[in-house]
Amino acid sequence: MVLLFIAESSLYIPLLYYSGWVIWIFSLYFAFISFFTFRKRGEVEKGKSYLHTTKIVKHGPYALIRHPQYLGGILFSISITLWNPVWFNILFSALIIILIYQWTYTEDKKLIAKFGEEYEVYKKEVPRLNPFIGLIKLLLQKKKN
Question: What is the DSSP string of the chain?
Fold first, then answer.
């Protein structure tokens, strides 16, 4: 959010601006619904952080993509850039997106170590960050059943 105020843009393109709001809403969904889904479906011990799941969560946003919180961060960066399209925001958002994408590889390695073969199967079924491919896979899977 600080990026919005660091550099003001005289460039106002309504399509970009309103697209930024739509993307921001999706970023909230992927970032925050994940917390509740983890807590509800991940069999977290009472009093522990939602990160201490004892089972792989495959519901809600985790049925579409493996890393919805990371996607929420990427979408949030994109929305900031669309609201205020200045070079600094574009550069900073690109850096954030690259870093977040790299973190998903590290996260996958940790989850393979934690859950083993079950996570390997989940990786094959659910894409890393692409909700469109995830939705197509989910619909095809439901159509099979």
Answer: -HHHHHS--S---HHHHHHHHHHHHHHHHHHHHHHHHHHHHTTPPTTS-TT--SS---SGGGGT-S-HHHHHHHHHHHHHHHHS--HHHHHHHHHHHHHHHHHHHHHHHHHHHHHTHHHHHHHHHS-SS-HHHHHHHHHHHHHH-
